[in-house]
Amino acid sequence: MSTVRSLASLLERSAREFPENIAVTVPGGRSVTYSELCELSDRVRDRLVHMGVRRGDRVGLRLHKSIEAVATIFGALKAGAAYVPVDAESPAARAAYILNDCDVKVVVTERELESELVQALGDTRPMLVLDATASRPMEELLEQLQRSEPAAPVESIATGADDIAYILYTSGSTGNPKGVVLSHGNALSFIDWCSETFAPRADDRFSSHAPFHFDLSILDIYVSLKHGATLVLIGEALGKEPLKLAAAIAAERISVWYSTPSILSLLANYGKLAKHDFAALRMVFFAGEVFPIPQYRALQAIWTRPRYFNLYGPTETNVCTWYEVTSDAPLDRMSTFPIGKICPPNLGRVVNEQGEIVSIGEPGELLVAGPNVMRGYWNLPDHNERAFFKDEAGALWYRTGDIVCEEPEVGYRYVGRRDRMVKRRGYRVELGEIEAALLRHPDVREGAVVAIPNPEEGVRILAFVACQDGTTLTRIALKAYSAQALPPYMIPDIFAVVPALPRTSTDKIDYQRLKSGG
Ligand code: AMP
């Protein structure tokens, strides 16, 4: 176990040990060394404290993937605050809901995102607004502010393991995103496990493919910076273009890659990987959804050298089980990879609906206890009540909602979900949140959303809508409305406008009939 108990001290320690190593780089753009990043985040801290941020407060970030976003994260942590990253690509209204829900003290954003956010927030919350087109956006903004209203240098706050480090919002079944609250201790337990299991090196170059509001980013940012390695930031656009992405992975000599299987499949199918030299690549991690074996085989046939790891876990626990896909893995006998064994010192158990432990090989819900497990959902006591199971000894176990089977050699095998959550391109989507958004449209009387498995995309999302009397809605209008109300990965693939939704004999929406086409 590391003796460091706060995330900011990981950066501070690396800045002392490896001051001249490149900490963060943008392909084709700027890089910063450890000492530069540490110093820049000190200045962000000073400014945030000047703006009123105190230990235990929240700082919101609505920024594109950038060196400025990394400096803001560390600035907020050094000020003793928790950071709350929101998607720059999602509608401003959703971002505003999140930032208001956890009552951020300050928002850091970019000029092009500012006005819609101010309007959606509906208040005059203090903001730091960067000009993303400037050559050194954060430095320039801080220098300018320093001239007009100097912020005094302050000491970093020595946060402890129980302080909140970040809040990640995930799709919520009742219609609004819910905030998963994670402490420094939660994050460090996972980061320390990564250090022990994967032995990262200072000459590694880690990909940062996942957006910062997605929990895959925790491994990218902190494991990389803890070890004096380089974090290679992959922006939203580059991240989705397989040809350019493949070229960037090779040119940037990325040695540790981490993404959802969807992105790896995209690379294997459309990235023309054989054109490049990936000699530096030594570890590939994938997480967030099932990786179909044929897709994995296509990738492994081209990237033959790296070690491959399937990492599993909800945002609420970060990665909590792992499985190395060794070259002798009996892939012929598997339909998907096992999710493997629990990450120590966490504990796992598989239970039936009564909470009793099932026998080996029997399906049941995976429960997880230990230092990785979140502190709870922000301001949702009812959800917190339901999220945990109390065992005979009074210990609390997080209910993952995932059905698994335990097998003697490999550990857990993922079977499926217990509820209406689906994964799309690795993102968590509660079908109920889409329904709630559709029902907010004044012309919608009833709406129901189903997910149909699809070999190419994982799932296709179908929305059925019935209009209020005297109104009509076209599919185009519904699509346009959804783009305003939902993040891109939640917009249904197909809309059907129907006179009324089919009902079961007990008058519930007949989801089975909708799944078979309505
Ligand atoms: P998120 O909170 O976005 O990380 O989503 C968590 C959910 O994604 C889990 O509860 C699982 O249903 C699914 N998931 C995460 N990792 C894996 C994996 N390696 N294999 C299969 N499903 C996964």
UniProtKB/TrEMBL annotation:
This is Amino acid adenylation domain-containing protein. Residues 11-378 form the AMP-dependent synthetase/ligase domain. It comes from Steroidobacter flavus. PROSITE patterns: AMP_BINDING (PS00455). Gene3D superfamilies: 3.30.300.30, N-terminal domain of ligase-like. InterPro entries: AA_adenyl_dom (IPR010071), AMP-bd_C (IPR025110), AMP-bd_C_sf (IPR045851), AMP-binding (IPR020459), AMP-binding_CS (IPR020845), AMP-dep_synth/lig_dom (IPR000873), ANL_N_sf (IPR042099). Pfam families: AMP-binding, AMP-binding_C. Residues 433-508 form the AMP-binding enzyme C-terminal domain. CDD domains: A_NRPS.
